[in-house]
Design goal:
The complex is a heterodimer of chains A (207) and B (384). Chain A is mainly alpha-helical and 207 residues long. Chain A has eight helices and no strands. Chain A has a domain of 85 residues: Four Helix Bundle (Hemerythrin (Met), subunit A) (Up-down Bundle). In chain A, helix 2 packs antiparallel against helix 3. In chain B, 65% of the residues lie in helices and 0% in strands. The C terminus of chain B is likely disordered. The chains are: A mainly alpha (207), B mainly alpha (384). Chains A and B meet through helix 2 and helix 3 of A and helix 4 and helix 5 of B.
Chain lengths: 207, 384
């Protein structure tokens, strides 16, 4: 058993366990942290697949930035005193959950094996080899390399990339619109009017 | 298991251990230095009783902290309460696995080190946030909410500032930043964007590490001690430890960005390898073989490391100087400054860098560095 394989087994076991615990945990803050742990194991697995760019994006964007936002929001709605543990709201929720999981895993496995990227024999040996399809001679053209990713993003995938950007912008504007507090804006307007009126009165008094 | 502990791995473990030891000592003496420097700024003497000039003060502080009574709040979320300081500290230590301190004196050469650096700084923030939440008490909770918002706001500017040297060198490897400062690559026009980028980076790193003008997470006038109110003894000490080491890491990044990294290029003369031939590794006769690499600072390594350390301490002094000079911001000022001033400024800077690199052209660094890296690996393998 070489170091890489050992690392893969550790990552795989910890990752699966944390994923399960994320779903089972009743405390939302714990759920967030299990998800972070899961993302961190994914980072390791990407590194083992020699895709450093994917690994680091997973680390910075998901495990770092997005999960901190998650934690922030969860903490905002759950004060430390009022321990409002989450309870399943739909009866026999877990049945549907399991069903959905099985369905999704089936789709993933079928697509993986039909795409020919997984070597069946090696998988049975427990060796995590997913051949990186299209690994070019030049590392700069590889998708795992930042430069390669950038070139792909702004040439082959320029249109989808821009569309995704536009969609995010729309979502952002929507969020601003939802979060806008019209009442307080009205109050500010009123305060401004009062100030103007007061100034006018002061001027009149002086005159 | 023998295959796992190959000489390379043992070498790395020894180097890592050495790095941690150096960092811990640095932390201990930084607390002393900061106290002394702050007192000189404030026209007093500071700790000068324990040992000559108070030099044994960190030791006394350490013993005192370790022997203090440990208190754990009854309602605390025990696991997270213990996890939080560990997380902060280990994330801060791990940053140093990415930062080269001299030519070929580094624990790793990750091609995407800068992104990793950013990720680790948010991992450290998890510790602060969880510390406040797991204490299950009001003030720490408020402190952790503040930390959360502050880190989210300033991380953006922090990352965007790093984009400037990345655009110039065309590489995400911190080692390649040094290539920018070699005489043959250097162009004074880079300073136009690098200097403001480094200054903005410094400002946002103050906020990211929660140091003085931005130390609202532990604002004692409003929320007692913020996220670490309920912590005592060594578990408390781990927070300032993490903070100081994060400060050293941020200073190291500024050195790599603006001050020429471990190179000493004065524009007309390159003194980088001034003492390059002074030292060699441990003598072959000691029979350490490949393990000797772990502690040796051979050849160029020595002079470049010394250059780096001098620059590093200049910057750490700047951090302390800022602490002595500026009062703490109000929370709304902090947010307004971060979003309405710092972030737009960095965006303008990135635009300027794009124009500059289009005119001058980026540095062709990576090829040089990967050659050096390959050479190092060859020598390592040859010795085994």
């Amino acid at each position: 058993m070489d170091g890489q394989l050992l690392a893969w087994w550790v990552l795989a076991i910890v990752g699966s366990l944390s994923a399960v615990m994320m779903v089972l945990s009743r405390n939302p803050v714990h759920s967030v942290l299990y998800l972070v742990a899961n993302f961190l194991t994914l980072v390791g697995i990407y590194f083992l697949l020699s895709a450093p760019m994917m690994a680091v994006v997973q680390f910075v964007v998901y495990a770092g930035a997005i999960m901190i936002l998650f934690l922030f929001v969860v903490m905002f709605f759950m004060s430390p005193e009022a321990r409002r543990w989450l309870r399943p709201e739909i009866k026999s929720q877990w049945v549907f959950g399991t069903l959905l999981t099985v369905m999704m895993l089936t789709v993933v496995y079928i697509s993986l094996f039909t795409s020919g990227r997984v070597n069946q024999g090696e998988l049975e040996m427990g060796r995590p080899t997913i051949a990186m399809a299209g690994a070019a001679e030049n590392p700069r053209e590889e998708l795992g390399h930042p430069a390669g990713l950038g070139v792909r993003m702004f040439s082959y995938h320029a249109l989808p990339f821009e569309i995704a950007g536009l969609l995010l912008l729309a979502a952002l504007l929507g969020a601003v619109l939802v979060a806008r507090d019209e009442r307080s804006e009205g109050r500010q307007h009123l305060a401004h009017e009062f100030e103007k009126a007061e100034e006018a009165v002061a001027e009149e008094v002086q005159a | 298991m023998a295959e796992i502990f190959t000489p390379q791995v043992v070498n790395l473990i020894v180097r890592g251990g050495l790095m941690i030891f150096v960092l811990l000592t640095t932390f201990a003496y930084l607390t002393y230095t900061e106290r002394r420097i702050l007192s000189f700024f404030q026209w007093r003497l500071g700790p000068n009783r324990v040992g000559p000039q108070g030099l044994l003060q960190p030791l006394a502080d350490g013993v005192k902290t370790a022997l203090k009574q440990e208190m754990v709040p009854r309602k605390a979320d025990k696991v997270l309460y213990f996890l939080a300081p560990t997380l902060t500290l280990s994330a801060s230590f791990t940053t140093f696995a990415l930062i080269p301190v001299g030519e070929q004196v580094a624990l790793s050469s990750v091609p995407v080190a800068i992104l990793f650096f950013l990720g680790l700084s948010s991992m450290a923030a998890y510790g602060l946030i969880l510390a406040g939440w797991s204490s299950q008490s009001k003030y720490p909770f408020l402190g952790s909410l503040r930390t959360c918002a502050q880190v989210i706001s300033y991380e953006l500017a922090l990352g965007l500032c790093l984009l400037v040297p990345i655009m110039i060198t065309g590489s995400l490897n911190i080692n390649d930043f040094g290539m920018m400062y070699r005489s043959e690559n250097w162009n004074w026009a880079y300073l136009v964007v690098l200097a403001p980028a480094a200054i903005l980076f410094l400002i946002s790193s103050l906020a990211e590490t929660g140091r003085t003008p931005f130390d609202l997470p532990e604002c004692e006038a409003e929320i007692v001690a913020g996220y670490h109110t309920e912590y005592s003894s060594m578990k408390y000490a781990m927070f300032p430890m993490g903070e100081y080491i994060a400060m050293v890491a941020m200073s190291a990044m500024v050195v790599h960005m603006l001050l020429g990294g471990y190179h000493m290029n004065l524009g007309f003369v390159d003194l980088t390898y001034w003492a390059g031939t002074w030292t060699a590794g441990p003598p072959e006769a000691w029979g350490w073989g490949a393990y000797g690499d772990a502690i040796s600072l051979t050849g160029k390594g020595f002079s470049t490391t010394m250059t780096f350390i001098v620059k590093l301490f200049l910057l750490i002094f700047t951090f302390m100087w800022i602490r002595a000079t500026f009062p703490r911001l109000r929370y709304d000022q902090l947010m307004r400054f971060g979003w309405k001033w710092l972030l737009p400024a960095t965006l303008v800077l990135i635009f300027a860098t794009a124009i500059l690199t289009a005119i001058i052209g980026p540095v062709q660094a990576p090829a040089v560095d990967s050659a050096a890296q390959a050479a190092m690996e060859v020598t390592l393998n040859a010795r085994h």
